[in-house]
Write a structure and sequence with these properties.
It is built from 2 helices and 9 strands, in the order ββββββαβββα. It is of the alpha+beta class. The strands form 2 sheets. Strands 3, 4, 5, 6, 7, 8 and 9 form a 7-stranded mixed beta sheet that branches. The structure holds zinc ion (ZN).
């Protein structure tokens, strides 16, 4: 999950923006008219789909991390309900319907993206690949591999703590 950043020029006067740093809380300023741009974080939902002591992983067929196993996730559209975005992303990626069972937590500060992690269970549908996902598999909690995104290790550690409590 990386952010596309094309905003190198001032939309006010066409001047060059300075002070751009996509990973930090930077507010680029135009070198001509001094207009300051406030860069909002992006919001993404991560969905841990659970079945007994297993979770669903998908093999990504889009960048970033093409070909790697990952949790299901996607950006929340402006104005969209976050839980609805989570459910929509699962449907788009593997064509199943899920119901959200729990909010695990919010992860932020390491990238321009604020991640909201939900647990969910499948309610209907048959797992299928899509143009975002080339494969899927259920993995046991104890067999979850190292996952590629910056918050993934913390997300999985927290998930396992919660799972072992209940
Ligand atoms: Zn300007």
């Amino acid at each position: 999950m990386t952010q596309k950043y094309n905003n190198n020029f001032c939309s006010n006067c066409g001047g060059k923006l300075i002070g751009i740093d996509i990973l930090k809380a930077s507010n680029p300023t135009c070198d001509k008219c001094n207009f300051t741009y406030y860069e909002d974080p992006k919001v993404a939902a991560v969905i841990i789909v659970k079945k007994q002591n297993q979770i669903l992983l998908v093999k990504r067929s889009i960048e970033p991390h093409f070909g790697k196993w990952s949790l299901l996730s996607g950006y929340v559209n402006r104005g969209e309900n976050v839980e609805s975005a989570a459910i929509r992303e699962v449907k788009e990626e593997v064509d199943i319907d899920v119901s959200i069972t729990e909010l695990q937590g919010v992860y932020s500060g390491l990238s321009p993206v604020v991640i909201i992690v939900f647990h969910a269970t499948q309610t209907s549908g048959i797992l299928s690949i899509s143009n975002e996902v080339s494969d899927f598999k259920w993995v046991k909690n104890e067999d979850i591999p190292k996952l590629p995104f910056v918050y993934d290790q913390q997300i999985i550690e927290d998930y396992l703590l919660i799972s072992n409590r209940t």
